[in-house]
């Protein structure tokens, strides 16, 4: 054995050694002192061992059941917004807590199952080892692998089919649940119902069947309808408005939803006389005189752009300080992280003197571009 350390076997000798011999050799070569190393269950098949096995299995079964419940809830539970006035609100309000609880329970149960398996079946070991410099030798690698395999064998995993099966079921269902979670959002088709009020492609400002859509204030009470007339705003003033249709009067659900739908808020601005704003190509008729209406949802990350500085004609987003120039460049961002102009809502005044959307434009009175931060697969 020229060039070989004393006590270190050759490759051929290593290949001939049993797992038990490799474990002992590894311990000896590593200067490890095994203070304690014993099987948890020296006598196999006792009632206590079987009970421990069932306890571990119970955690994995719980992981599988809660993982399965998560998948079912995620797929079938009503998840689309329902206002507090609608019948479906109670079920909708349970959606997030239920998927959170079931997924959390599944993760927890897999974790506890693995820990309790290690505590109940992996050999009890206490070792003291001196640390050496440098990388591991081939002998170290082989003996360490043998030690790990030995722990697995002694813990009896191969013959504990209940734990193996439940562990696989628990971890498997949990893994599938994670996959469903990650991919589920891509499966739901945002193009579906593209002509319904719930479509992602329209806001609450779109008119169906040509019904007039008014600009209303949020008075704090959805039933108290306060429509906006041009004379309500002073020059340089602004107001947040929401859509309203006569057909929704008395419909609690629709009224509440119009005030809560995230892409509905619009900033109505009355520019000071003589501002002479630059208009966007193709949107020259979107304003009504000095009145301009822009989506209030910041095109950076969706905060409400709640401040209008009348001296400079800029809309400001308080979240990351984006500034949109309403006067000189049709709400184009001129400062901050936003990169896209705020979409403009086409407005006009009806025969009764109320501000309404202008349905002569190409999108039934709705914005003609996406509102808020861009999301995947944008249409335009
Ligand atoms: S959300 Fe408006 S600047 Fe970031």
UniProtKB/TrEMBL annotation:
It comes from the Bacteria. Keywords: 2Fe-2S, Cell membrane, Disulfide bond, Electron transport, Iron, Iron-sulfur, Membrane, Metal-binding, Oxidoreductase, Respiratory chain, Transmembrane, Transmembrane helix, Transport. PROSITE patterns: RIESKE. The keyword Cell inner membrane does not apply. Residues 263-356 form the Rieske domain. It is found in: Cell membrane. Its main location: membrane. The keyword Membrane applies. Pfam families: QcrA_N, Rieske. The chain crosses the membrane at residues 56-77, 97-118, 167-187. It is a multi-pass membrane protein. Belongs to the Rieske iron-sulfur protein family. Iron-sulfur subunit of the cytochrome bc1 complex, an essential component of the respiratory electron transport chain required for ATP synthesis. The bc1 complex catalyzes the oxidation of menaquinol and the reduction of cytochrome c in the respiratory chain. The bc1 complex operates through a Q-cycle mechanism that couples electron transfer to generation of the proton gradient that drives ATP synthesis. PANTHER family: CYTOCHROME B-C1 COMPLEX SUBUNIT RIESKE, MITOCHONDRIAL. This is Cytochrome bc1 complex Rieske iron-sulfur subunit. It comes from Actinoalloteichus caeruleus DSM 43889. The lineage of its organism: Bacteria, Bacillati, Actinomycetota, Actinomycetes, Pseudonocardiales.
């Amino acid at each position: 054995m020229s060039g070989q350390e004393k006590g270190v076997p050759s490759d051929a000798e290593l290949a001939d050694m049993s797992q038990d011999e490799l474990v002992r050799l590894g311990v000896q070569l590593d200067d490890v002192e095994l203070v304690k190393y014993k099987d948890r269950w020296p006598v196999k098949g006792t009632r206590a061992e079987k009970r421990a096995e069932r306890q571990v299995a119970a955690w994995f079964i719980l992981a599988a059941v809660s993982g399965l419940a998560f998948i079912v809830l995620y797929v079938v539970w009503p998840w689309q917004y329902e206002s507090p006035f609608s019948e479906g609100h109670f079920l909708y309000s349970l959606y997030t807590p239920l998927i959170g609880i079931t997924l959390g329970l599944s993760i927890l149960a897999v974790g506890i199952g693995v820990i309790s398996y290690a505590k109940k079946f992996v050999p009890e070991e206490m070792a003291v080892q001196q640390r050496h410099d440098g990388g591991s030798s081939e002998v170290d690698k082989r003996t360490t692998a043998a030690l790990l395999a030995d722990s697995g064998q002694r813990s009896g995993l191969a013959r504990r089919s209940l734990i193996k099966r439940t562990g696989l079921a628990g971890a498997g269902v949990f893994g599938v649940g994670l996959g469903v979670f990650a991919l589920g959002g891509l499966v739901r088709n945002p193009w579906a119902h593209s002509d319904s009020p719930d479509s992602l492609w329209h806001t609450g400002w779109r008119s169906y069947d040509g019904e007039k859509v008014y600009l209303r204030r949020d008075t704090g009470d959805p039933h108290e309808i306060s429509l906006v007339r041009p004379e309500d705003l002073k020059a340089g003033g602004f107001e947040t408005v929401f859509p309203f249709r006569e057909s929704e009067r008395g419909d609690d659900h629709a009224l509440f939803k119009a005030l809560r739908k995230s892409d509905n808020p619009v900033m109505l601005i009355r520019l000071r006389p003589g501002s002479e704003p630059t208009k966007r190509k193709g949107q020259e008729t979107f304003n009504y005189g000095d009145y301009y209406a822009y989506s209030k949802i910041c095109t950076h990350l969706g905060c409400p752009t709640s401040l209008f500085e009348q001296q400079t004609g800029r809309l400001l987003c308080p979240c990351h300080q984006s500034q949109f120039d309403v006067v000189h460049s049709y709400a184009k961002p001129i400062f901050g992280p936003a990169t896209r102009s705020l979409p403009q809502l086409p407005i006009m005044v009806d025969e009764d003197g109320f501000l309404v959307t202008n349905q002569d434009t190409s999108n039934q009175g709705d914005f003609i571009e996406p509102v808020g931060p861009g999301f995947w697969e944008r249409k335009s």
